[in-house]
Design a protein that fits this description.
By secondary structure, this protein is of the alpha/beta class. It contains 24 helices and 21 strands. It folds into 5 domains: 83 residues, no CATH class; 94 residues, OB fold (Dihydrolipoamide Acetyltransferase, E2P) (Beta Barrel); 57 residues, no CATH class; 192 residues, Rossmann fold (3-Layer(aba) Sandwich), CATH 3.40.50.300; 157 residues, 3-Layer(aba) Sandwich (Rossmann fold). Bound molecules: adenosine-5'-diphosphate (ADP) and magnesium ion (MG).
């Protein structure tokens, strides 16, 4: 906003309203594009108005009155040379009644419907004409607005901004030509003032070349911002980690030699990608994606060993204690035989335990440190951190990950995610990272059989549990998600636990939920792992990472309340052993449309990437961005599903601009992002 007008309290409230719309600077008004358009370039004779379609009429007011039958309303009758029309208002201001005084000429815009006394418009937009008023020559834009900011006032502000904004192009002519994009000025002009006769379908469907240009520009700004961060990071220095020359010191080779299995093709490829990054003298920031059970852990272990065989330490951080414990178990299994020491650090430890872990980390006695958030608290000092592994990275805030990074000046970072991120999403929102994907499961996995049961068949499900556990198997029972109340969710888990204990008295039924102390949780998990618990009842705390190969049955109660990603994660807890696994989705009727769709997707698909793609379509990108999503709409115009074809060219153009036209790159960023928080993570 221009400063001069921001003084009075009136314009301060206007500024607040504009701010709500994401409009902070004058140029943001140029980028505030219409939701739709109305055609006020023509006047339709009253007798010819088609029912149900928006039209504009012009006539002279015959009478205007406020009546109270059945409730207070303003009724104005207007006529032109062809007929008569009623304008009816249920909410109105005195000034409106006054503008409609008999004899006035008015233009009204709205849909005509057939009322008791002939044609009428309810709540039309109208204005009284004073003297000759030529019809507009462009369609009238209708802008997204907010309470208390009138369309007309917003439109005036936008017109004002358009009149003196710099609209020259930020893209080189050659790029526009190659991609077949129209100029920026042309795009802005077309979208704010489309000529009548413009392809209205392409206009409202946002497929017009002008729209494509705006979407491209937006995606380009995102790419520029993220790739800039990427390039800046590549300018930092980090220890180059290469395999030791001396064969006997190669811990990575030693581990690979001892593995009870062969790495899959996908694991080998991702390990090569990581190896190549680590050998660079610049910090790696690589996201390792892989569906549940695809074998990410062993890759993380290899990366950690690469740091250790170079005389540096590795840290492994997980978002929950259960997950961290699991890493501790896996890492121990593989590292202890190699004679390495691991430090374990969590919030639930005694002061003494924490003290000795910290000492081992500081002295370098511990080659690897594993833990939760406790790893990046004050007072944790690494002797020489070479690599930080961050599991389920989207669960951590930016600040937390940064805190870990500063522990070792410039360490490499390997982030892991078991939530498959659709390619379009990772191409755009993760453009500041390198991405590796393990897109193959270890051989011999039997796909989980998914069954959909209405709640009324619960007894049958309990019978299945009895059979599965009677045969020496184990099962999970996931209690419903209750978003409104954690308390209620806990209560449901307690009730379900009590009920199942009665229903299957011969089984050991355990209970796990978020309110348990970490030590109690760990105890329960250990009991399940060793088979002392047959049936584990729990809330979604068992969603991520829990790995008990003997568990082959999972029941999810009120499955209709869960999101797709969550269902997929939960289902991934079974199907890890040799036995045929089953996942029973219990649902309560009646099912809403969205829930029915979700259950269908999860029932029909096993591939996490397919499910993620559906999830993205159904819920938008917010779910995947976790801590990155600040509430600010990230992409306003481009749609990752519909405009997927624009992402790759935007990435390519971003690279070209940053390398060859840095001034244009800066201008483009300034135009699209201006003062606002940029797209990238820190
Ligand atoms: P996630 O990617 O979900 O973290 P894990 O790393 O926990 O998966 O691996 C799941 C299971 O598969 C583990 O028991 C692991 O030891 C095993 N595993 C990993 N890689 C292979 C492989 N190439 N062949 C056979 N089993 C493997
Ligand atoms: Mg894992």
């Amino acid at each position: 906003m221009r400063k001069a007008s921001a003084r009075s309290s009136g314009s301060r409230t206007v500024a607040a309203k504009l701010n709500k719309l994401g409009i902070r600077r004058e140029f943001d008004l140029v980028l505030h594009l219409p939701l739709r358009y109305e055609d006020e370039t023509r006047v339709t004779p009253i007798a010819n108005t088609p029912p149900g379609l928006p039209v504009q009429v012009e006539g002279t007011v015959r009478s205007t009155e406020i009546v109270y039958r059945p409730k207070r309303q303003l009724i104005s009758r207007i006529e032109d040379s062809t007929g008569e029309l009623v304008l009816r208002f249920f909410n109105f201001y005195g000034s409106q009644a006054k503008a409609l005084e008999p004899g006035a000429t008015v233009r009204a815009f709205g849909e005509v419907r057939t009322g008791f006394f002939g044609g009428e418009m309810i709540h039309p937009r109208f204005r009284a004409l004073h003297g000759a008023t030529p019809l507009p020559t462009a369609l009238t834009p209708i802008y997204p607005t907010t309470d208390g900011l009138a369309q007309a006032a917003l439109r005036r502000k936008i017109e004002d901004a358009l009149a003196h904004a710099q609209l020259d192009d930020t893209l080189p002519e050659e790029v526009l030509k190659r991609l077949g994009l129209c100029g920026f000025r042309e795009a802005v002009d077309t979208l704010h003032h489309p000529r009548p006769g413009a392809d209205e379908e392409a206009l409202s469907g946002r497929t017009l070349p002008a729209w494509m240009r705006m979407k491209f520009d937006e995606l380009l700004a995102q790419q520029l911002s993220m790739r800039k961060h990427y390039r800046e990071r590549k300018a930092h220095r980090a220890p180059a980690l290469e395999p030791p020359v001396e064969k006997a010191r190669r811990l990575t080779s030693a581990l690979i030699g001892r593995l009870p299995f062969q790495l899959t093709q996908a694991q080998q490829r991702t390990w090569r990608e990581i190896e190549r990054d680590l050998a660079q003298p610049h910090p790696m920031h690589r996201l390792l994606q892989g569906d549940v059970g695809s074998g990410k852990t062993v890759i993380a272990v290899l990366a950690a060993l690469r740091a250790v065989e170079n005389g540096l330490q590795a840290a492994v951080m997980a978002p929950t204690e259960i997950l961290a414990e699991q890493h501790l178990r896996k890492f121990s299994e593989w590292l202890l035989p190699l004679g390495l020491e691991i430090a374990w650090l969590t919030g639930s430890q005694t002061k003494k335990e924490r003290g000795s872990a910290r000492a081992a980390i500081a002295s370098g006695k511990a080659a690897v440190a594993i833990g939760t958030h406790a790893l990046f608290q004050e007072g944790v000092k690494f002797r020489s951190l070479g690599l930080a592994v961050v599991d389920e990275q989207h669960r951590f805030g930016v600040a937390q990950r940064l805190a870990l990074r500063t522990k070792g000046e410039e360490s490499h970072q390997l982030m892991m995610s078991a939530t498959p991120i659709p390619r379009t999403l990772s191409m755009s929102y993760c453009a500041d990272l390198d991405v590796s994907v393990i897109d193959e499961l270890p051989p011999g996995r039997k796909p989980v059989v998914t069954k959909l049961f209405a709640d009324s068949r619960r007894a049958e499900v309990v019978r299945r549990i009895r059979e599965a556990c009677g045969d020496g198997g184990q099962a999970y029972w996931v209690c419903p998600l209750i978003e409104e109340s954690e308390q209620l969710q806990l209560q449901t888990a307690l009730d379900t636990h009590a009920r199942l204990r009665k229903e299957v008295p011969e089984l050991d039924v355990g209970l796990i939920h978020g309110r348990l102390k970490p030590a109690e949780k760990a105890q329960t998990m250990a009991a399940f792992q060793t088979g002392r618990i047959d049936l584990l009842v729990g809330t979604t705390v068992i969603e991520v990472g829990v790995d008990v190969a003997n568990a082959s049955l999972m029941v999810i109660e009120h499955a209709e309340r869960f999101g797709l990603a969550q269902l997929h994660q939960l289902r991934g807890r079974v199907g890890r052993g040799a036995a045929q696994s089953v996942c029973v989705l219990l649902y309560q009727k009646p099912l809403g449309e969205a829930a029915r769709k979700r259950l269908r997707v999860i029932f029909e698909n096993a591939d996490g990437f397919v499910i993620a793609h559906e999830d993205l379509k159904q819920r938008g990108p917010g779910e995947y961005l976790g801590a990155r999503q600040s509430g600010e709409p990230l992409l306003r115009f481009a749609d990752l599903a519909e405009d997927a074809d624009l992402i790759e060219p935007a990435r390519a153009v971003a690279e070209t601009l940053l390398a060859q036209h840095p001034v244009s790159a800066e201008r483009h960023l300034e135009r699209w992002l201006g003062g606002r928080a940029d797209f990238s993570r820190a």
